[in-house]
Specification:
By secondary structure, the protein is an alpha+beta fold. Helices cover 26% and strands 27% of the residues. α5 crosses α6. About 9% of the residues have low confidence.
């Protein structure tokens, strides 16, 4: 990877202090992943869950429902996700986790491979996160009555996931005026 190339990521924490459901699975078989996520979806009454392949046998599961930190921690403990992601020290202090949105190497751009549909419509959803995934071309959305009114996108630019030190992460937040216009069309 080039020294000066930044990778785009997405904080899972919303501007108002909630967390969207984001889970990182490394070296996991898709059929086991689907079964686990269906169980999590039912247990926490979550709306649609999107399975994104971040690279070969590496997946992200994303649901835009907003949960309290305590609920999100509990949810992670009920999964077989990447152990470093599940036990990450930063989450203990309420610092947000990050899921990658852009390529690290050639041909490893995250792409949607499956949607686990749900009839649950209980939790408010993060519009900035939905707009960000829409803008990146990973997931397309329609406007929902559950969308919040937050206006800050939780974008992070970082050099490498191998260097997760706070100093190495350059946090950037952008206004969503352009993204919101595109989304509302």
């Amino acid at each position: 990877m080039e020294e000066d190339k930044y990778i785009r990521g997405c904080h899972l924490m919303t501007i108002d202090g909630f967390y969207i459901v984001g889970i990182d699975y490394d070296k996991f078989r898709l059929r086991f992943l689907v079964n686990e996520l269906l169980m999590i979806q039912k247990l926490y009454k979550l709306s649609n869950i999107y399975i994104i392949e971040s690279s070969k046998n590496h997946y992200h599961a994303v649901c835009f429902d907003k949960l309290f930190l305590k609920e999100y921690r509990e949810l992670l403990q009920n999964t077989h996700c990447d152990s470093m992601f599940r036990r990450d020290f930063s989450l203990m202090f309420g610092e947000p986790k990050v899921l990658r949105l852009s390529s690290k190497r050639k041909n490893d751009r995250p792409k949607l491979i499956k949607t686990l549909k749900s009839n649950y419509r209980i939790h408010q959803q993060s519009l900035p996160h939905k707009l960000l995934y829409n803008f990146e071309g990973i997931i397309k959305f329609r406007k929902s009555k559950l969308d919040d009114n937050n206006k800050i996108a939780p974008i992070v630019f970082y050099k490498s996931r191998a260097i997760p030190l706070k100093k190495q992460i350059e946090k950037k937040r952008i206004e969503l005026k352009l993204l919101r216009k595109k989304y509302e069309r």
